[in-house]
């Protein structure tokens, strides 16, 4: 996934916003219009209906696209979680599910390399959100930021859902947790404490191979990988290279790692946000993913993470 996707036929954002405002004004004059059924919050989308179901709909509400396939095991864990959140958010976004096996053209258009892959389309503009399964807390933060940007930049306030039918839609199956993994997680923590970062990484990956959304394993893996990278660095040389090569992706990511380990959290986040702004294509996506990894290390509830997510969203949008 590489940056904002060029959809070609999509209208400019300002025109999309005007359409959304006009639609809400028309609904208001007609007494609020017909409320959407809860079933319309989660829709299956194919190539033939993509313009109608995603592009046009995105002028009224952010559309989150879940690229999945029947054979993909992580998809089967992420999909129900996204569906449950779509119902819980009650019309603040719509979830569009795309089976990549049946819609190869869409897969190519969005440059999907692996699944699950999650994108958003807001006022006709598409951008990648995350790839692979992610912790629920991280997904919620991403959705909250997406909704905030949709409201502030494009005036998208979501759709009205039929309250009487909402109860039935809320009965979607919840995630079935896998586990327990107490022994594996304890072994990983002991390896981390002993500075055996390679062993800790492998132990956490063993958990995630079976339970890709395990929050403790995701956090531990991010910490172990970070410490393993920093352990091999010459701090003085890294900072010298970062100062001399502001456009070099590798040196900026290395300096951000050092910043974080040294307690300079805002500096680390700011450096990577700036790197995302200055880069394109695969380099931009690599910088974005490294920033998300560092968010995992600090934790989603930290206000510095929230501030950096806001800054990242501004750069991406």
Task: Give a topology summary.
Elements: H1 13-29, E1 42-44, H2 50-56, E2 63-68, H3 73-88, E3 94-99, H4 104-109, E4 117-122, E5 125-131, H5 136-154, H6 163-169, H7 182-193, H8 197-210, H9 215-231, H10 235-244, H11 249-261, H12 265-278, H13 281-298, H14 303-316
Parallel strand pairs: 1-3, 2-3
Antiparallel strand pairs: 2-4, 4-5
Give an overview in words:
By secondary structure, this protein is of the alpha/beta class. It has 2 domains: 13-169, Glutaredoxin; 182-316, Serine Threonine Protein Phosphatase 5, Tetratricopeptide repeat, CATH 1.25.40. It has helices at 13-29, 50-56, 73-88, 104-109, 136-154, 163-169, 182-193, 197-210, 215-231, 235-244, 249-261, 265-278, 281-298, 303-316, and strands at 42-44, 63-68, 94-99, 117-122, 125-131. A 5-stranded mixed beta sheet has the order 1-3-2-4-5, with helices on both faces. Strand 4 (117-122) and strand 5 (125-131) form a beta hairpin. Helix 7 (182-193) packs antiparallel against helix 8 (197-210), helix 9 (215-231) packs across helix 11 (249-261) and helix 12 runs antiparallel to helix 13 (281-298). The chain is globular. The model is unreliable at 1-18, 31-38 and 165-178 (pLDDT under 50).
